Structure formats: structure tokens, C-alpha cells
Amino acid sequence: xxxxxxxxPDLFREILETIPVGxxxxxxxxxxxxxxxxxxxxxxxxxxxxxxxxxxxxxxANAEEEVAVQAVSKHGDAVNLKVRSIPWNDPxxxxxxxxxxxxxETALHRAERALEELKTQNREGALRERENAxxxxxxxxxxxxxxxxxxxxxxxLMNSVTEQLFGYKREELLGQPVELLVPDSLRGGHHHxxxxxxxxxxxxxxxxGLKLEGQRKDGxxxxxxxxxxxxxxxxxxxxxxxxxxxxxRRNQEEELRxxxxxxxxxxxxxxxxxxxxxxxxxxxxxxxxxxxxGMSHELRTxxxxxxxxxxxxxxxxxxxxxxxxxRFVRHISRDSQHLLxxxxxxxxxxxxxxxxxxxxxxxxxxxxxxxxxxxSVRPRAEAKALDLRVExxxxxxxxxxxxxxxxxxxxxxxNAVKFTPNGGHILVExxxxxxxxxxxxxxxxxxxxxxxxxxxxxxxYQVGQRHLGGSEGTGLGLAITKHLxxxxxxxxxxxxxxxxxxxxTFRIPKAKKADTAAA
Amino acid sequence: xxxxxxATTEIRSKLRRVLVADDxxxxxxxxxxxxxNEMYDVLEARDGIEAIDMAHLHVPDLxxxxxxxxxxxxxxxxxxxxxxxxxxxxxxxxxxASAMRGDRQRALEAGFTGYISKPVSLxxxxxxxxxxxx
Lengths: 519, 134
Fold this sequence. Notes:
Oligomer: heterodimer
Largest sheet of chain B: 5 strands, parallel
Low-confidence stretches of chain B: none
Shape of chain A: rod-shaped
Strand content of chain A: 15-25%
Low-confidence stretches of chain A: 466-471
Mean pLDDT of chain B: 89
Distance between the termini of chain A: 154 Å
CATH architecture of the largest domain in chain A: 2-Layer Sandwich
Radius of gyration of chain B: 14 Å
Largest interface: A-B, 26 and 20 residues
CATH architecture of chain B: 3-Layer(aba) Sandwich
CATH class of the largest domain in chain A: Alpha Beta
Number of strands of chain A: 17
Strand content of chain B: 15-25%
Order of helices and strands of chain B: HEHEHEHEHEH
Number of domains of chain B: 1
Helix content of chain B: 40-55%
Number of helices of chain A: 15
Radius of gyration of chain A: 66 Å
């Protein structure tokens, strides 16, 4: 057992002044009785400053359990305390005195706070770390090369697509000027572009630039599209560049363009061929036209004087001819007229066969055209004492090529006159029938055997050859006649028997049919 | 009928004068023969230039032009002549061996007053000249 008497007041005092706990004794009246060194250190007031005075700070006097208290020291510092109070009877015997024990927790508290802060910081750091990781994932997941460049144009961030695209390793690029990726030829001027962008920053989307190219480590070029976006981070001005490899697309575009070009070229070539063919056809047509008209001209010019002088001789204006001379002149006359008819027919036929027969449609009375034609052959008919009659139901209005139709009528009538023996009969009939006009020329001539009837409309077929022992025809008349009728959308045929006579009938529409337009 | 040889200068001066232009001698002689028999005073030109010269020199009452002549053709001649008031009303006949459709129309549009195709019918030639000089 240890008794009180074994502790000297000095020892007690020594202990009191050396322990790190503030010990304050307060009288029942509230005055400081005792204030040890630790209390002075913790709260700032010396024992002398507080002795016999009320407590300079408020401290709980009835805290049997230790309580945390925050107080302000003499120097104005916040101090964190743990305080416990113990009732004590002082030597004077007066009750109500209290001993207050004060633990300075300030350092601990500060340490705890620091720890807490540290913990918080750690949490935020982890969060940022996670975020960074996610950003990196994103960066690496992007199909495009992404680099970040600082204000000096140095590469500060890049993804692995950048490595693949440009053929550099990460460590070869980081910290290097971005110009490394710019083609040699443009490298020198690139910093101007960077400066421009810095003064006028703004998002520049892909594809708005020209045909851009990047340069790989091996010096080869790669077509790219670049999108730039500026950012101002705490590290300063930064530019993020997203670089897309458009080799494939540009190749496709190139192929498409090439294909289009080829297509256009081949189309143009085809057109050119067609044009040339067309020009050739037009030229050929023109040449043939010129040939025909030239030929016609050249053949007619000598015939002009032959026929003209023959006529003059026949008229005996320059002096009388004897009978033999007159006969000679008539031979020349007849054969030159025949030659003229041949020339006319051959030209007609070649026009028809080239498809250049142009019909000039006009409205006229067919019965008048028949009368005119009949009167042109009447002298010859009368010379043979032929009975030439016309039976036409008037009026016979028609829309056709008047000259060509007269040519048809003339051919049929002159054949009839030619092949009908003296004293025979010729009948011309015409009538309208169901939107068409039917014209027939009937004679009591030599007729045509059934076996030959199919050939009469052929070229150079001479109807009367055998029967009359010679011909004055060209053999082209009926061929031309059939063509002319057909060109009018009509038909022609014959009924005939040898020595009984022939009946030629043609039938043409009263008006041009719509589908035979543009004559 | 007055034979050509008998036509004195005095008589000739009273005859109607016809200029015939044709590059073929046969063509010229044919028309000359026919028309002299009809009592016309006939002048000949061998091409377009000569036709223009002769026309200005002799001022004929009627001109017959072959359309097809080397150098200045019938169309060229009429184009030149029609510019002068002296030839504004002169009857001018186109005589051509061309037989293409539309030639007559083209000739009339060019200012010709008559159109005769070769080979000519003497009857037609006489009638046309008579008609135009009536």
C-alpha cells in the first residue's frame, strides 16, 4: 500500500509540472487555483496570468466522461481538446472545487484531418485514374489516329492507331513536333497553319479540307482527312487532331471517277462513231444526190442538142430533106426520145430505190389529172384509131403527189395505147370506194399470159416484147409505177389474158395516212 | 420570112434582141437558129462573165441563161443583172439540163421569169420567148 504521506509535495509538484496533460484546479467560486505548465503550453496563458482569476476559456466543469472541446488559445489558435473534470475537496475544505484535465488533441486532430484529406484525395485520384483509363480505352477504340499537340506543336498524346498509320513507335513521336507527320513539301509552312489555327481556333470537321496527305516514317504518303479541335486545359492551349486514313475511300472515289471517265469516254467515242457514221451517211446521201443530179445533167446536155437539131432538121428550116434523109432524121428523133425516157426512168428508179422518193402531197381533183393525161396520149391513140373513153364519177378529190400520180396514169395509158392493136378500145374508169380511189385502165390489147403476170412489175420486163417484135419502152415503167403507187400507200394489180386484153387497177387512199407522215 | 443575110443593120436595129448564154457551142447555135428564124437579133455569150458584159453593152430585150456554166453560173449572172435598174424588168429565161424537182422553184425565186429544161422542145422555146416579149 502506498500512503499519501510517502509523497512529498515537491515530488507531487514535479510530476504535475512535467506531465503532458494540462491540470487546472478551480475553486468553488470559479477562480483558478492551480494551472500547470502543460495547461499553459496548451492554452497559452501562464499560471501567473490566470492565478486567482476566472477561467480564461470555457471548459466543462462537470465532465465525468472525457469530452471533446474546441477552444481558442490566448494566441487565437483553434485548439482541439479532450477534457475531463474531477470533483475535488481543496485543503480549505470548501466543497465545489474541480480539477480539470486537458489533453491537447490539436496535433492529432490535424493529423486525422490530413489523413482524411489524404484519403479523399486518394479516392479522387482513383476516380481520375479510372477516368483516364476509360479515356485511353476510348482513344484506343477509335478507328482513327488521334493525337494531341501542345502550343509548341509537340505531340503530347497519341493512340496506337497513330503508330500503325504513320509507322512510328509511340516513344518516337511523343514530344516530337507534329510536322514529322506532315509531307516534306508542306512541312516548312505547317507552323503557319498552326499559328493560324491558334489565332482562329474552331472545330474543323473532317472532309472540309483539301486532299490532305500524311507522311509515314518510310516516307510514303497516305491520304487523310483531319479534324481539328482546340482545347484550353490547365496545361495550356492544346489541339486534338483526329486523322482518318481515307486510302480506301479515295481509291474507291478514284476507281469510281476512272470508271465514270472511261464510261464517258467510251460513250463519247460511241457518239463520235455514230456521228461519223451519220455524217458519212449524210455525205454519202449527198454524194449520191449530187451524182444523180450531175449524171442527169451530163446525159441531158448532149441530148438537148441532139433532140433540138433533129427537130430543126425535121422542120426543114435550113433547107429541104429528101425522103431518105427525113426517115433517118425520124430514126434519130425516136431513139433520142427513147434515150431521154430511159434516162428519166433510170433516174426515177434509182431515186426510188435509194428511198429518196419524196412525195409532195397536194389536194386536187383526180378526174382533172386523168383528163390531162388522157389528152396527152390521145394523139397517139387517134393515130391508131383507138377508141379511148373515160368513165369517172366526179368529183374525185384526193390528196396525193399530183405529178407522180400523173406519171402512174401516163405509164398505164401509154402502155395501153402501145399494146392495143389499131381500132381497139381503151377505157379509163375511176371511182371512190370506202376512203380510197380506184382507177383502172382496160384495153383490148395483146394481153399478158398468166405465167408472166407476176413479172410485169419487175425491172426491165418488156410486156410486149414477143408479141410486137420490138419495144419502145424502157422496161422500167411498170416497176416505177408500182413503186409510186406503193409509196402512196396503195396497191396495184392486173387481170389479163393473151389476145383478150389487160385491165390494170390501182387503188390509193384519198388522203395520206397518218403513219406515212412527213413526205 | 427574111433570110439572115438580108437583115441589114437598119433592120437589125428594129429587131428584138435576145442574149443567149451557154458554155456549149451546140446549145448556143440551136437557140440562135431557132430564134433567128423567128426574126430575133441573137447575141451569144460563152460564160457568165461574158453574159454580164454583153448584157450591159447591148441591153437585150430578153436573156436566156444556161444555169450550169463554169465560173459565174446562171444564178450569179441574174443576181448581178437584177441589181441594175436597166435589168429590173428584163425577162430572163433559165435553160437547164438539171431535172431535179424544186429546180424550177429555185430559179423563179432567184428572179428568173421563165424556165425551160433541156432537152428543149422547140415549140416550147418559141412559145416561151414569144410570151415574154409580147
